[in-house]
Amino acid sequence: MKNDDVLIGRYRLISQIGAGGFGTVWKAFDERMRRFIAIKVISENAPTSAKMEQRFWNEAIITGSLSHPNIVTIHDFGGEWHSGENRYITFLVMELLEGQPLTRVLATRRPGVAEAIRWGIQIAAALEAAHENGVIHRDVKPSNIHVLKNGRQLKLLDFGIAKSRILAADLTAEGHWVGTEPYMAPERFTSKRIDPKTDLYSLGCVLYELLTGRSPYLLTPLAPPSAGNPEVPGAVDELLSALLASDPDQRLESAETARSALTDIAASLGSVDLTGAEKGQGAPRVPAPGESEATPAEASPIASWHCHDGGVYTVRFWDGATLISGGEDSLIKMWSTNDRKHLRSLVGHAPGFWNRGVRDLALSPGKGLLASAGFDATVRLWGIPEGEAVRTLKQGPSLFTYYDSVSFSPDGRLIAAAANGSSGINLWEQGTGILLHRLNLGGNRVAFTPDGRLLASNGQDKVVRMWDVGSGRLVHSLNRQRKPIRDLSFDPTGQHLATAGDDKKVRVWETANWSIVLTTNEEHAVSKVRYSPSGRFLAVCASNLAYLRDSLDGRLLSIIRGNGSPIVDLDFSPDESLLATAAGNALQLWNISEVSNTLHDGGERTR
């Protein structure tokens, strides 16, 4: 097989990214869903047999039956005759995981105690979900655990030899065992007993290796991790002793018990549970501010100033020293963040049918162009920083509507603008102003995926829609919200989409399978949600409050009360040291560098 081969007319191979004894893994592109995926193929040199094909099929069925943030997602399974190789190709389609196997991480460094415990929580949570669905993995080891690119989230892989109640047949030959010896429970060698406790022994082996840098295999006597590292709590020694008990009847009761114990240990260390899911739920419920989590100190503004007569609608950082705002006075104004000095005004938008003002601003990727959306049903382009008018896009939806949001594609080639009240979305070619597509089921907020292939729009009809940018076709819909959706934002990797709306919740969706991996609960309806440039933070506007949260676990980091008026927009400075908010007729600046530092945790939490 080679680059650009297409399987079943849908999956285009891009490059080989991995290989094992019986299979190869390719990065590929799903032409139908317009997303990058990984494809696992039985390799040409693998022994061909009905049993090998059956193991591959088992992996697809078993993994596909599981849905959990810490378990790899399977999208498809199939096969076809490949004339180039003169053989039948069997393949497995799964989410593309960016990052590296845990084995590679351990080859370069040993994680800190808090990080090891957080990773242990995630492995235990994955096993808990598997066991609840009647699946025993049987091969839990570092090479089957993937550390995502953000360095904080783990995924359990390779259920090829798993045992499941939905597939009663066991392909292991009589008198043989399958697995990886250093991580296998003792009873696997001496009896036919296979139950969830065999995975718990493997969990203990991995956790011991995370904490000590050594596998417990053949270590006699087995020294507790605290013997080599006094920072390891005694509770960890006790937990590992229970996980690594030779007699399964003396071993820890369940993966749920292990996860709970590790979570308690993490809390005692001042760490957090990063599983991405609680028992019985597809996503964790994060308490509302002031409910059950400790309320952090409220932030204080470092600057506040009047900027627009009638009110300010939108704010964007051009760089760390310059802010751009748009308001009800139909003006776009540029400001110095150092002394709040007014640098210049951009004049062009006229009053609209119902109102006047500049509703939204967007900067091109190189920040040389500014796009503004106004009540006059136009999108205007400006050269920055001088502010010269470049072009006006006038194809307004109708006399009675206006543009509510505007966005550049990641390559700066396209501009999307959405009208109020789900009246439609226009997609233009930026360089010529040619209207490429008119999307009639759009929303009033738009966001491009970071790869530029899809455009997301919200809707008053409670639906998030994903549009193919090239064809203008609707390719996917998310309709699990109960109330209208007000805003959406992709993280920089494109792996997650945050949506927010009138139900007072922010939901984070994993774009590989469109499952909800995080839900936060706010005090009021949420009007804006935004990822920070690095993706570490989520900022949320809810009435006259703004919240700053950890983007991975939803932990509340800071509360921003503003000037008493509803906070209508916010933006991060490029270095994430400042947050700008727009409320009433004023802009405010907040120093969030101290909050940013709390996520570094000795380097463990950086993306």
How confident is the prediction overall: mean pLDDT? 85
Question: Which shape, going by the Cα principal axes?
Answer: globular
| Helix share bin | 10-25%
Q: Compute the CA-based radius of gyration.
A: 27 Å
Q: Strand content of the residues, in percent?
A: 35-45%
Q: Structural class of the helix and strand makeup?
A: alpha+beta
Largest sheet: 6 strands, antiparallel
Strand order of the largest sheet: 1-2-3-4-6-5
Number of helices: 8
| Euclidean distance between termini CA atoms | 34 Å
Q: Report the uncertain regions.
A: 171-176, 272-293, 598-607
Quick one: how many beta strands? 40
Write the layout of secondary structure elements.
Blueprint: E1 6-7, E2 11-19, E3 23-30, E4 35-42, H1 50-64, E5 74-82, E6 87-95, E7 99-101, H2 102-108, H3 113-132, E8 135-136, E9 145-148, E10 154-156, E11 163-164, H4 187-190, H5 196-212, H6 234-243, H7 255-268, E12 285-286, E13 301-306, E14 312-319, E15 322-327, E16 331-336, E17 342-347, E18 358-363, E19 369-374, E20 379-383, E21 389-393, E22 403-408, E23 414-419, E24 425-429, E25 435-439, E26 446-448, E27 454-457, E28 464-468, E29 474-478, E30 485-490, E31 496-501, E32 505-510, E33 515-521, E34 528-531, E35 537-542, E36 545-550, E37 556-560, E38 567-572, E39 578-583, E40 586-591, H8 593-598
Parallel strand pairs: 12-33
Antiparallel strand pairs: 1-2, 2-3, 3-4, 4-6, 5-6, 7-9, 8-11, 9-10, 13-40, 14-15, 15-16, 16-17, 18-19, 19-20, 20-21, 22-23, 23-24, 24-25, 26-27, 27-28, 28-29, 30-31, 31-32, 32-33, 34-35, 35-36, 36-37, 38-39, 39-40
Helix pairs in contact: 3-5, 3-7, 5-6, 6-7
